[in-house]
Amino acid sequence: MTTPDVRGLEQLERTVLDETASLASALRRCLMLAGYARHEELRAWALKELEGYAPTEELPSYRKVPAALEVTVDLYLPGQIIRGNTQRISPNQLPEHARDRGIGESAPIRQGVRELEALVAHDEGALHLSPPGSADYVLLMTRDQHQRGNEGSHITSLHWNISLASIAGTLDHVRTRLTQFVAEVRAAMPPGQQNPNPDQIDSAAQQALNVTGGDGSTFNIVAPNAKADRGGTASANVNEPAPTTPQPWWHRTSVVWGAIAAVGTVAGVIATVVVK
Asked: What is the CB neighbour count within 10 angstroms for residue 76?
């Protein structure tokens, strides 16, 4: 019995090469092509990129992007309140439980590509993502400040500051992988063949996406991280990947949180809170 051909490659090729077409549309076409080819791993990858990754699922490397850890602090000073003072911190300055969970200067991007495309299109410049448990960590860090005598310091937010250019880079990695997949399928097809067969789809998936076929197999997609700097912010919540080796307890180092508020029309008051 001959192996049936797989439909949908030409439509996928047109969509993935059209920079005006959404990546979500290209992934849906990839999903259909994987269905025709009965390639479970390719279909699973396309679906995860469309719907997003669950908190318990390991992320491809291109969905882990560099991100600064920041806290937002309200300072209650004699005669004035300074709100929203944002400062970058080191992972060493996080509570021990946060570091045990692997929270550091790499943010997991678990959202589906349609949501990510919307964030990039909104062009806020940066995205603030709060790690899981951040509300508890904020309370612990504020309590520690009060115990050290900084009773006017109230930490209101712990988040990653992620450049939207990094999000755009993640999307571009996915589109490039799809383009490479199409190119590998085309290269495997002899002259005159109109549609690929499942074996050609499987070979191309392994080469372009590191997607391995076969019962009980798993896919592993590797791509370099993207990073850039831009201004502006948006907000969301995410879940963090598996823990890494914890850093030393945060009270062994120090951080200076500064805020400047104008007093009258001539002089300024500089309020500095030191975490010892």
From this structure: 13
SS3 186: helix
- Are residues 14 and 43 located together in one domain of the fold? yes
Which tens digits make up the pLDDT trace of 158-177? 999 999 999 999 999 999 99
**Do residues 84 and 72 make contact, with C-beta atoms less than 8 angstroms apart?**
yes
Q: Quote the number of domains for the chain.
A: 2
pTM to 2 decimals?
Answer: 0.72
What is the H or E stretch that residue 93 is in? Answer: none
Q: Is 89 helix (H, G, I), strand (E, B) or coil?
A: strand
Helix (H, G, I), strand (E, B) or coil at 154: strand
Which phi and psi angles does 207 have, rounded to 5°? -75, -40
- What range does the domain containing 71 cover? 63-167+227-275
DSSP 4-42: PP---HHHHHHHHH-TTS-HHHHHHHHHHHHHHHT-HHH
- H-state helical runs in the chain: 9-17, 23-37, 40-51, 96-100, 113-122, 134-147, 164-188, 198-209
How far CA 28 is from CA of 7, 173, 181, in Å, comes to 13, 17, 15
pLDDT cut 70: percent of the chain above it: 74
Instruction: Mark whether 181 and 137 lie in a shared domain.
Output: no
The angle at the Cα of 52, spanning 51 to 54, to the nearest 5 degrees, equals 120
Token pair for 59: 């992320």
35 and 69 in a common domain: no
Radius of gyration of the chain (CA): 24
Task: Name, in order, each residue with C-beta under 8 angstroms of 10's C-beta and a sequence gap of 6 or more.
Answer: none
Tens-digit pLDDT profile for residues 49-66:
999 999 889 999 999 999
